[in-house]
Amino acid sequence: MKPLEPRRQRWNTLRHKLWCRLSVRYLTYLALGAWALLADPFTLSSTSDRALSREYHNFYVRLSGVEMAPLTVVTIDASSIRDLNANGSGWMSSNDWPLDYTDHARIISDLTVKQERPPASLFYDIYFEEQRDASGELERLGRRLSLIDNRETGTDIVLAGGGTPMPMSPDAYERLDQPRLSATAWSGHGELYPLSAPIQFQDSETTETTPTPATVMYQTLCAAGAKDCEWLDPSSAPAVSVHWTAVESRECIPAEPGSHIRMLAKRLLEGVLQGLYSKAEPSHLPAKCMPVHIVRASQLYGDDPVSLVPPGIDEDAPYAVMVGVVMPSTHDYIQTPVYERVPGVLLHAMAFENLWRLDDDYFHYRNMTYWGLLFWAAAVLLFMGQAERRHNSPLRRKLPWVLLWWAAIAGAVVLVQLVFHNILRIVPEGWLSLIAVVPLLREIVLRNEAAIMKIKENLNESR
Fold this sequence. Notes:
The longest helix has 35 residues, at 4-38. Helix 1 (4-38) packs antiparallel against helix 12 (434-462), helix 7 crosses helix 9 (345-358) and helix 10 runs parallel beside helix 12 (434-462). 33% of the residues are buried. The protein contains 12 helices and 12 strands. The protein has a 6-stranded parallel β-sheet with strand order 4-3-2-8-1-7, with helices on both faces. Strand 5 (196-200) and strand 6 form a beta hairpin. The protein is α/β, with parallel strands linked by helices.
């Protein structure tokens, strides 16, 4: 037995060296994965996160339509201004944007006091940052707002209050008779919609946190008896990942058998063509598919005016109104994954729709990067084992393994995404990027392991 001791000792030493080298390689691969997911090289992780999440969003929206929300969006556009001015013979004194303060006062009055069924809440998404002499006296608008409040119409009027990136003039605030403001400008939330944000006045360091417009509308309708929303604490609730939905209709989300399959197949084909040819643009749904009642300001007047009340809601049910300007010169447009560029007021509208439809089950972001790292740690072991089998297996067996690998990773990612999206209502950050990162790092592992095995074979042959 004694002659075997040196041989056993040499074997233990060799095994220790192999284990150390294997551990070093494994840790190196883990470092590469951490670098790819955390350091975001060439914006690969963040770009793939946004792109893949956007495409998943687009597919999910087309699976089923939603009901209309109790919200009307009134848009003030160039055509409405011309129609209501009527070359100086109409009631509107302005013939172009920006409007006179008397015109703003008339619009707010017509949407509240003069309605047989006034809204429970009115958000006026036009920012009166400071007195504009060419538009008249801001005090007249302030007096009209106070008069409407004194009449107790039941309408809670909220004005756009800017935010820390856009502080409001304290003089304008006083001229408006200190109206209720809602933060409409914020920073640090990316593409998310916060439920509260600070507002600030010029030449002042103090800020006041206020609910954002969608939160104000939601809370007001809840207070009007529509539903219970005591769960909502705007200061601590996570920001909304706005889910752009569409109503069920022939032009939007048809309900006929097989229509969803055709729409999804069309969307998939468009995505493939867009990847192959940059000129191939995916189709967008028209704005009329949004689950909110959208009317132009001029449509509320005339011989056959459009009703301000959203269609389909109960006779005694409360509803809300948002008023926004649709003018290219204001540059207040946002890009959406489902619709084309839409006015900024519709972002508030869709955030409200999400809250109204889902309550505390709304979509929100959660950083899943560290879970992604755990997934990558397990995947590295799989890759290293695959490299060993790949080296020892005949060529004809490699193709089925590759196909099996891609099917497994795609199925796992889709399954986890379905759980996140449909059950947990999480739009995960740092998870979808694995679809782009893992195949890249897989090739690194396989090629590196193959090179190491080749070196070992050459060393064994040289001996």
